[in-house]
Amino acid sequence: MKLKSFTYPEREKLKSKKQIKRVFEEGSSIKSYPLLIRYVRIEEEDNKVGVSVSKRNFRKAVDRIRIKRQLREAYRLHKHEIDDSSTTFAVMLIFIGKTQETSARIHEKVKSLLKQMK
Questions:
Q1: Where do the domains of the chain lie?
Q2: 4-38 pLDDT, tens per residue?
Q3: Coil, strand or helix: which one is 31?
Q4: Are 71 and 95 a contacting pair, CB within 8 Å?
Q5: Region at 14 (left for phi over 0; alpha for psi -120 to 50; beta for the rest)
Q6: Is 27 helix (H, G, I), strand (E, B) or coil?
Q7: Residues near 90 by Cβ (< 8 Å), separated by ≥ 6?
Q8: Which class in CATH covers the domain with range 14-117?
Q9: What would the pLDDT profile of 38-84 be if each residue is shown by its tens digit?
């Protein structure tokens, strides 16, 4: 039995401009307010995940950083939903809401969206 890893190491972070561009140009999307997930299949060993919060909706950096932290934490705890599959993805978690949400709601939405990706 393989133990589930609840980490978010550097190798799983989506940083490559080429991959981010590919996610937005070629990728599919799933929306469940207040989140939007854009993803594309990749030929790498690990899933790559990035997060984004609009500066237009949240002027204060403190608010944007809090939401990004919530998104990364929700992914970290629920990444096993897509890790179990044989394919790997490059994923962008985009917060499209206009107001801050509770961590519980964000966790719920991230989990349901990751399940839909398979």
A1: 14-117
A2: 678 999 999 999 999 999 999 999 999 999 999 99
A3: strand
A4: yes
A5: beta
A6: coil
A7: 14, 19, 20, 22, 23, 27, 39, 40, 42, 47, 48, 49
A8: alpha beta
A9: 999 999 999 999 999 999 999 999 999 999 999 999 999 999 888 87
CA distance readout (Å), 97 to 5, 34, 48, 67, 81: 29, 4, 23, 10, 23
Nearest to 38 by CA among 93, 82, 109: 93
Task: Report how far residue 53's alpha carbon sits from residue 95's, in angstroms, rounded to the nearest whole number.
Answer: 5
Largest CA distance in the chain: 46
Distance CA 51, CA 92 (A): 6
Query: Rounded CA gap, 17 and 13, in Å?
Result: 12
- The answer, yes or no, to whether residue 116 has pLDDT greater than 70, is yes
Cα–Cα distance between 22 and 2 in angstroms, integer? Answer: 32
